[in-house]
Automatic annotation (TrEMBL):
This is Holliday junction branch migration complex subunit RuvA. Has three domains with a flexible linker between the domains II and III and assumes an 'L' shape. Domain III is highly mobile and contacts RuvB. The keyword DNA repair applies. The gene is ruvA. Residues 148-205 are annotated as: Domain III.
Length: 205
């Protein structure tokens, strides 16, 4: 799975599309429009590092989403996994709020601030708030709390398996069932695949 790309900023197209040159590749990366404006004004022709998330959505070509820090990347993964959000709206949220600002908006129930995000509006903000209000807490299952430092592994494993075509609810239930604190991302995905797709139970040479 892609994690970070280093390259030269070649083009920044409105409102939020970056072309990054890295070795022999030119990467098309979608990012928060607030970040795109910063890159357009200050980083054309300069080398940067971008934290990325690769999404393989059904019946569409792969898309890369980019961020300048790990915190935004991990929050994007969380937002994208919510049923009422998805990648475009997750990107809009991160265009308007930093991770800490979004946390405060939800904790203080500032629905009007949430409604000003492009693509939300007042009616949708109320419904979206219900999904977002538990986003920044710890993940628990049957009284067991998953450590925050392990939460990223769980969320990335879920995103990977959903991209492979498995249902979100089934993936989440399976990951909670097989998760152990010592799991790496690769190991967790392998364990989940054995539950979700029996053909993966056979050891590969």
């Amino acid at each position: 799975m892609f994690y970070k790309i280093r390259g030269i900023v070649k083009e920044v197209f409105s409102p939020n599309r970056l072309i990054l040159e890295s070795a022999v590749f030119f990467w098309e990366i979608y990012m928060p429009f607030s970040l795109a404006e910063i890159l357009r004004q200050n980083f054309l022709g300069k080398e940067i590092e971008v934290f990325v998330v690769l999404l393989l959505r059904k019946n569409e070509y792969p898309e890369l989403y980019g961020f300048l820090n790990q915190e935004e990347r991990e929050l994007f993964i969380k937002l994208n996994n919510l049923s009422k959000v998805g990648p475009k709206l997750a990107l809009n949220l991160l265009s308007v709020f930093s991770p800490e600002e979004l946390r405060k908006v939800i904790e203080e129930r500032r629905i009007k601030d949430l409604a000003r995000v492009p693509g939300i509006g007042e009616k949708r903000a109320e419904r979206l708030f219900l999904e977002l209000k538990g986003l920044f807490g710890k993940i628990t299952r049957k009284g067991f709390t998953i450590p925050l430092e392990k939460e990223r592994i769980l969320l990335e494993a879920k995103a990977c398996l959903v991209n492979l075509g498995f249902q979100s609810k089934e993936v989440e239930e399976t990951l909670f069932r097989v998760f152990e604190e010592e799991d790496t991302l690769e190991n967790l995905i392998k364990k989940a695949l054995k539950e979700l797709a029996p053909a993966f139970q056979e050891e590969r040479p």
